[in-house]
Amino acid sequence: MITRDMIIADIIREHPETLAVFKHYHLDCYECQIADLETIEHGAGVHKVGIEELLESLNRSLS
Question: How far apart are CA 25 and CA 50, in angstroms?
Fold first, then answer.
């Protein structure tokens, strides 16, 4: 399960299927150097993406 406090790069490395979700929300996190340090909650906030909706979509992609 992906949670708001997880690091973006770790999510992408462990669950490459989430890349499509990041792209859908126009989050180019896979290209960002900060992704190794940034939590999903912070990244969503910076890009004005609703964290609950993003988490739901990311977790749905894991099924």
Answer: 10
Q: Tell me if 59 sits within 8 A of 4, measured CB to CB.
A: no
| pTM of model > 0.85 | yes
Residues near 35 by beta carbon (within 8 Å), at least 6 away in sequence: 7, 8, 9, 12, 29, 43
Residue 1 lies in a domain: no
Q: What is the per-residue pLDDT across 6-48, written as a single tens digit (0 to 9) for each?
A: 999 999 999 999 999 999 999 987 778 888 999 999 999 999 9
Residue 2 inside a domain? The answer is no
Q: Is residue 13 domain-resident?
A: yes
